[in-house]
Give the backbone structure.
Amino acid sequence: MQQIKDHTKKIALALNTVGLINIQFAVKDDMVYIIEANPRASRTVPFIAKAYGEPYVNYATKVMLGEKKVTDFDFKPHLEGYAIKQPVFSFNKFPNVNKQLGPEMKSTGESILFIDSLKDDEFYNLYSRRKMYLSK
């Protein structure tokens, strides 16, 4: 986790970021890879805010407007268990669209699933429907 924090700080400073930054990481064999970084908000921000019970969008807006600094806020993120972001595909609303999934985003939104454990039945149901496999 420290590697991710260190990379985030370096990237944000290098991009002269004021406000939110969206960084996608991949981790394999304890090595952190950066997929992309964008100095902007994304659909992930409301998800994270809801998951941790923190109004991050409000904080970022005040920072971007110059009304506050990041150090002015008392961050107390809290999450019990896990918050899983599930894509929502509205293919039935767009009958002529190519339904084959690839690396580009084709979802029209997300929903959030709160679970206590990765052994939760809803978690296994989600992954079995997606035909995804979890590694240890």
The helical segments are 2-14, 44-52, 56-64, 121-129. Residues 74 and 82 are 23 Å apart (CA to CA). The longest strand covers residues 31-38.
